[in-house]
Amino acid sequence: MISEQRLLTVLNEEFGFSSFREGQLETIKAVLNNHDTLAVLPTGGGKSLLYQLPGYLLPGSILIVSPLISLMQDQVDRLHRSGEKRVLMINGQLTGKSRRQALSKLSTFKFIFTSPESLANPEIIGALKMIKISLFVVDEAHCISQWGPDFRPEYLLLSSVRKRLDLPTTLLLTATATPEVRQDVIQKMGLQAEAVTQVIRSVNRSNICYAVKRFLSTNEKESYLIELVNELAGAGIIYFASRKLATQFAEELNEKTNKVVAAYHAGIPSLERYRIQQQFMDNQIQLICATSAFGMGIDKGDIRFVIHFHQPANLESYVQEVGRAGRDGKLSLALLLYCPGDEQIQRTLNYIDLPDSNLLDAVSKKQQPVNVLGDNQELFTFYLQHGYNGKMIFNTFEKRQKNIDNHLRWMARYVNNTKICRREMILNYFGEQLKETPAPCCDVTEPELIDKFKHEPQQNSEPLPGVSELNWQARLYQLFNINNNKEN
Asked: Given 146, 179, 237, 290, which is the most exposed site by the fewest CB atoms within 10 A?
C-alpha cells in the first residue's frame, strides 16, 4: 500500500502540483491497488495524470489506447516537454526499419501510445506480449460504446487484447458517460461491473453558459454567425458537420471578421493540421472552424466560446466538445445554432444501409461476392471475420439505429426547450441533479445571455512565444525523431 504522502511527493516532484484535483487521488489509489477502474471526470479534470503518475510507481510499461493521432501526439509532446523520453507512439506510419527497431526495444519505453487498429496487428500484439504491461489504459473510453459498433469496430477487440496481454489492471477514462454507456463500456471490455471501481464526478462545468439560437433559414444563420464572431472576445471553436463548410466558413470569416481563422478537419494534410493546432495553442490563430476531428487532447485554457453551426448527434458529443471552453475557470459560452432540417444532417451522416441477414450469411459462406454489401462492405466483413452471423449483425445495427434515433430526440428536446434550465437538462441526461444554479447559467434563465460575451476587451491577442511559420517544422521534426517516428 502506497501512502497518500508518497503520492503527494511524486505529484510534486514529477508534475509540479501540490494537491490532487477532484477524483484524481481516488482513481490513482484504485489503480495502484490493482483494481480495474472506470473514471468519469469532467473535461479539463486532469485525466492524463491518472496513468502518468502510476507509471512512475509501477514496474513495466503503461499501454494507452487512444482514438486519435492528434490526441496521442499531444500527450507524447507533453511528456517530452516534462523531460520524459521513454515514450513511444505506435501508429500506421511506424513502419519498416523504424517499427522493427521500436518493437525490438519495447521494454525500454514506460509509456506506449497506440490505437485500437494497431492492436489488431499480430506483430504488435506479439511484441507487447513479450513485455510487462502493468496498466492497460483506454482513453476516451466512451468511444467503445459510441464508435465500436459502426465506426471503429476494432474497439470491440479490446476485450480480447486485454486477455492476450494476461489481464493487466485496466483503467477506462472519459469525461462523459451516462449510466447506460458506463455499463456498456464495462460489458464490452469483458469486465464484471461489481468488480470495477467507478470514480464518477459531475459533468457540470459551472463557468460554461449554455445557449441555443434558432433561425428560419441557413442564410439567416450564416449572417448571424459572421456578425457574432466580430463581436465575441477571445479564442473560439466553431464546429460544422462537413469539411466543406468548415473550409468555406474559415475563408469567409477571415475576410469578414477581425479574427485570424483556420479550418481543421481530416481532409487537411496532417503536417498542416499539426501546424494549425500549434498556432491556435500559441494564439497566432484565434478561431478554428472544425469538424469533430478537432478537440480531443486540446488543452488550451483560454477558449472563450464554442459554437456549433450544426447540432451534434448526441448530448455526449455536445458536452465533450463544449467542454473545451473555459478550462481556465473563466466564464465561457457554449452556443448551438439551429434551423429546421439540421437534425436530418445527423440522420444522413449516421445512416448505414444494412443488408439482409441472409445476404450477409451468403457472403460469409462465399456464395456471394463481398461487393454486394455496398459501401460498408469492410465494416460488415469485419464482423463476419470475427464470428458474427447475418442475424447477429442485423440485430446489432438495428439496435444501434434505435440508439441514434433516441439521441436525436434528446437533442431535439434540448434545442426546442424554452422552459427548463439547459444545465439542468444536461445533468438529468447524465443521471445527475442540479444542486445550485450558477449566475449566469443559460439563455432560458437569462434571455440576454449571449450579450454578456460581446464587446469585451480582447484577451490574449498577442501571440505567445512558440510555434511560428518559421520554426514549427523544426519543432515537429525534433519531436518526432525522438522516437524515430513520422507524422501520421
From this structure: 179
Domains identified in the chain, total number? 2
Which residues are CB-neighbours of 80 under 8 A, at least 6 positions away? 87, 479, 482
Smallest CA-to-CA distance from 318 within 419, 186, 408 is with 408
Q: 321 and 175, same structural domain?
A: no
Distance between CA atoms of residues 225 and 372, nearest Å = 44
Query: Residue 109 domain-assigned?
Result: no
| 148 and 173, same domain (yes or no) | yes
Helix axes 390-416, 422-429, angle to 10 degrees: 160
Residue 328 has pLDDT above 50, yes or no: yes
Cβ pair 177, 196 in contact under 8 A = no
**Domain encompassing residue 122:** 4-67+115-201
Residue 459: what pLDDT? Answer: 40
Q: Is 43 left (phi over 0), alpha (psi -120 to 50) or beta?
A: beta
Query: What's the CA gap between 120 and 290, in Å, rounded?
Result: 29
- Helices of type H across 282-437: 315-322, 342-350, 357-364, 377-385, 390-416, 422-429
Binned at pLDDT 50, 70 and 90, residue 221 comes out as very high
Residue with cell 473550409: 247
Pair 431, 178: CB distance under 8 Å: yes
Query: Nearest Cα to 209, choosing from 436, 434, 453?
Result: 453
Instruction: Report how far residue 417's alpha carbon sits from residue 409's, in angstroms, rounded to the nearest whole number.
Output: 12
CB atoms within 10 A of CB 303: 26
pLDDT of residue 321 exceeding 70, the answer is yes
Buried b (16+ CB within 10 A) or exposed e, 125-141: bebbeebebbbbbbbbb
Mean pLDDT of the chain: 87
Cα–Cα dist 218/234, whole Å: 25
* Alpha-carbon span 407 to 456, nearest angstrom: 36
**What's the grid cell of residue 229?**
464572431
User: The cell 487498429 sits on which residue?
Assistant: 117
Indicate the pLDDT class of residue 361, thresholds 50, 70 and 90. Answer: very high
Are 215 and 277 contained in the same domain? Answer: yes
Domain boundary among 167, 201, 235: 201
Q: Which three cell numbers stand for residue 210?
A: 449554455
Same domain, 280 and 422: yes
Half-sphere exposure of 430 (CA within 13 A, CB side): 26
Lowest mean pLDDT among 153-167, 362-376, 412-426, 445-459: 445-459
Residues 171, 236, single domain; the answer is no
Residue found under cell 463481398 = 370
Task: Write down the residue that cell numbers 466512451 correspond to.
Answer: 142
Q: Are residues 337 and 458 in the same domain?
A: yes
> Are 305 and 236 within 8 A, CB to CB?
yes
